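Aim 2 progress update. The chain analyzed this quarter is reproduced below.
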Amino acid sequence: MGYKVKLNVFEGPFDLLVYLIENAKMSIYDIQITEITKQYLEYVEELKRMDVPVAAEFMVLAASLIEIKSKMLLPRTNPDKPGTEEEDPRSDLVEKLLEYKRFKMLAQLLLQQEERCEQIMEKPQEDLSAYMDEPDEYLSLELKQFVAAFDLFLRKKKKTEEIRKHHLRTEKQRITAETKMAEIRDFFQRNPLREAGFYELVKQEGGSYDVVLTFSSLLEMMKEKRLEAEQKYLYGDITVRATRHLMEGGNEPWKSK
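Predicted structure tokens:
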């Protein structure tokens, strides 16, 4: 019949013994049997008060410790072979402790793996026979039709690449309204008395995006009374001039927007 005993953090006699050795900072290959046996027996006495049948299992190891302790007190020379020493009485115990630690470590790894697996959700397998059982279809085309189809594919691919390159180039060249207003301000501070046409403020390579950006920036700066603009007739060019407020270098509220 299996059992599981836990005293504080100890499960079973070997768990207790390993704890005592590690807590005393001893090498498992050089156990101080006298000290460990004393501490072990104190725990066994406490176990007896708690559960006698379980304490009997701990008594087996206690008896082994006492036996090892007694052997350690005897001379370790072999009378039949002078000058030689008998095997260390602790060697069997050390092997059992090392084996116990290995199995405990493996059990901990398996427990961690089980906890990870519990967090994994599996998707039920689907029936793909409807797609796998269908025979392959082959197109019956003449050579001219195939060449025409392949040529169309190449032309579409080339057009797609051109659009993508143009889009990437446009995205890199685009500037913000804040930057554009700073450019207009610098333009008029270099030429404080000059009147400029609207398209003089537009970058030649900017395209429609820069036209719209320049116009919206112009409106914002007119709203802040930094620029004045005049259009003498419908669809005519817009004449832009700087105000004293811009020349005096006041605060630039658009930079905080």
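The longest helix spans residues 143-173. Residues 144-172 form one domain. These observations will guide the mutagenesis experiments scheduled for the next reporting period.
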